[in-house]
Amino acid sequence: MPATLRPLILVAASPHANGAEFDDRSTSLSMAYTDAVLAAGGLPWIFPPTPDVAALRDALGRCDGLLLTGGDDIAAGLHRPDAGAALAAKCVGVDAGRDLFETALLGEWAQRPVPMLAVCRGLQVLNVALGGTLFVDVPSERPGDVRHNQTDRKDEPVHAVVVERGSLLARATGRRSLRVNSTHHQAVRDLAPGLRPVAIAPDGLVEAAEWADAGQRAWLVATQFHPERLAPRHAEFRRLFAAFVQACRKTR
């Protein structure tokens, strides 16, 4: 790829029940993601939720990287079928179409792995797709001193995480500890085979994961926090996006 050509990064968007144009089902995405990709030198390609596997295969064959974005909960039946009705009912904003879209997208990505940054729900759906499980409802299943669903402070660092030495996250940010935002209702329970935790919250929840054998795989960092919302004011998160885009630049 010529140095002047921006790497093309597929950004997986979410569905929205009532769009701005005709008040019908629409594609939704915070511009914080695309702003962060553009600032780091990438070219974002906002991709709508679709179960069309052939289209997903075609898209992944054309792009240089993949960004999985945040959003509402994943259906408990996809990873905790024995959770029980009362616990499953605590899921918020489940959209079967989005669950299907991202599961299919990751299935195709597994056949052609390009560098990926997975954010919040992105970490969760990746973990589920690879065989892991989630806490369906963190407040009831994993109560602790850290309040993880602080959406009122979505652009602020609210708690610390410890970052594993030598991880891609540590190398990208230049930090062994970070202060991060926290806006999630679900979280990793059992980490999928093939992944390893590389950042941990004070209460023990997984805040980031990478391949266990990273040297043999495409670049992958999956974070429970939202680096795109912190990047405008915190250089370490801009460096994370820069490392991701650089990995994408090397894809072809």
Explain this structure.
The chain is α/β, with parallel strands linked by helices. The longest helix has 16 residues, at 96-111. Helices cover 31% and strands 22% of the residues. The chain has helices at residues 31-39, 53-62, 85-88, 96-111, 121-129, 138-141, 168-173, 227-230, 235-249; strands spanning 8-12, 14-16, 26-28, 43-47, 65-68, 116-119, 133-135, 159-163, 177-180, 187-190, 195-200, 206-211, 220-223. It contains nine helices and 13 strands. Helix 2 packs across helix 4. The chain has a nine-stranded mixed β-sheet, with helices on both faces. The N and C termini lie close together (6 Å).
Extended strand count: 13
Within the largest sheet, what's the order of strands?
4-1-5-6-13-12-11-8-9
- Average of the residue pLDDT scores: 95
- What is the CA–CA distance across the termini? 6 Å
Q: How much β-strand is present in the residues? A: 15-25%
Report the principal-axis shape. globular
Low-confidence stretches: none
Task: Give the H and E element order.
Answer: EEEHEHEHHEHEHEHEEEEEHH
Number of helices: 9
Sheet having the most strands: 9 strands, mixed
